[in-house]
Amino acid sequence: MTSSSDRSPAVDVHAPKSYEIRTYGCQMNVHDSERLAGLLEEAGYVRAPEGADGDADVVVFNTCAVRENADNRLYGNLGRLAPKKASRPGMQIAVGGCLAQKDRDTIVRKAPWVDVVFGTHNIGKLPVLLERARVQEEAQVEIAESLEAFPSTLPTRRESAYAAWVSISVGCNNTCTFCIVPALRGKEKDRRPGEILAEVEALVAEGVSEITLLGQNVNAYGSDIGDREAFGKLLRACGKIEGLERVRFTSPHPRDFTDDVIAAMAETPNVMPQLHMPLQSGSDTVLKAMRRSYRQSRYLDIIRKVREAIPHAAITTDIIVGFPGETEEDFEETLHVVREARFAQAFTFQYSKRPGTPAATMENQIPKEVVQARYERLVALQEEISWEENKKQVGRTLELMVAEGEGRKDDATHRLSGRAADNRLVHFTKPDQEVRPGDVVTVEVTYAAPHHLLAEGPVLDVRRTRAGDAWEKRNAEKAAKPAGVLLGLPKIGVPAPLPAATSGCGCD
After folding, report:
1. In whole angstroms, what is the distance from residue 275 CA to residue 368 CA?
2. Do 415 and 428 form a contact (C-beta atoms < 8 A)?
3. Is the pLDDT of residue 158 over 60?
4. What separation, in Å, do the N-terminal and C-terminal C-alpha atoms of the chain show?
5. What is the pTM assigned to this prediction?
6. Which of 430, 450, 449 is nearest to 441 (CA)?
7. How many CB atoms lie within 10 A of CB 335?
8. Residue 266 is inside which H or E element, if any?
9. 246-250/274-276 β-pairing
10. Mean pLDDT computed over every residue of the chain
11. Residues 375-404: pLDDT tens digits?
12. How many other CB atoms sit within 10 Å of the CB of residue 267?
């Protein structure tokens, strides 16, 4: 029997339960975590203080299944939480997302201290499953095979006051041999245009001035509702929403990228001159093996049309190096496309086997040292091109939306950071007057580096915005909350550089 001196400290049953969310993977997971935060706060939980590091009543892992060793990373983190849970009465651990959808009962078998496992299709069940696990005192594993409710119908606690993700579809109808996402997210399901626009209008009314339309294959939008031109129409409709200053989208697929979308981008003033167009490989042979339904000529034709219609567009991409069977000649074709397309940035991935994908069992897997050498050559070429393209920005006058948390050295350099219309990151001299995230400044670019620009002269103009007002209001409300009972948001990312080089799944 445990003596009274051995017991853990008494728990205040009347205090609000705290939560922490740890998010891995693509923008879909980031957005899902905003939903999970909203669900938990609606159920009465409050965010754990910044830097809690597992010191919360509920810790939720929103997982990714497409990264190499994703499962090892999860179980390592779960293992580190086991002693903390043992010493904290009532603490619960939940695992959701793509890895949960894939591994299901395996998670509880390997980590029996986990309380809840839920999948990509039933994130709305998290509070119910937590309560059921608490009452029944046993793990709850519930994985739905199809979408139960479109995520946008769920409550949301967004990270940013001035920028927001807006999901227009979930799932994917493609069958790329390196990607497991369709198996875990399901077939594409589109939202009705009216629902999407209503959400955008509501966000703008709250002070949001930038939205990013989000889908696993965003420009396939309309296939589920029988309108192949639906995505272009949606972009144009966003252009009519008063107060919405910037519209972005990610990620499209070359197969579905049509001329009407290019025209909508060029003709709609608040659709930004930025495009993320995944290439994956420049070799027709490799593209065929990947089951990518386009070839090099088709891809370069898209790039040409976009540049003709939007001369200042910044185009970024994803590239996989070392796909099974890739020869030196195939790799040279990829380098050729990189030289021709002149991407502003390329997010490059060394191919690694992803369990459950056809590519994982293909013959002619490329030796690690060969993949590494090709990867380094590709990165070196792209760095050179990125720098050259950024140097073209020197001397230009740009409007920047001031960003929060994007300049890691801003305090030391007395600068602020913002995003140009084409999504380039610009660090600029801090002006004398107050500038808030969400406000807009006008600057002149004075220096270019491969991954950012500098505006070292004085700020030419500051425009205070409703988005800045919204940021200021949110932070005033946070400051008014007592310490330890914060109603802010988990640190799960904002619609900032698209896509994130280390968190995108690279499967579009």
Report:
1. 31
2. yes
3. yes
4. 57
5. 0.81
6. 430
7. 16
8. helix 259-267
9. unpaired
10. 87
11. 999 999 999 999 999 999 999 999 999 999
12. 14
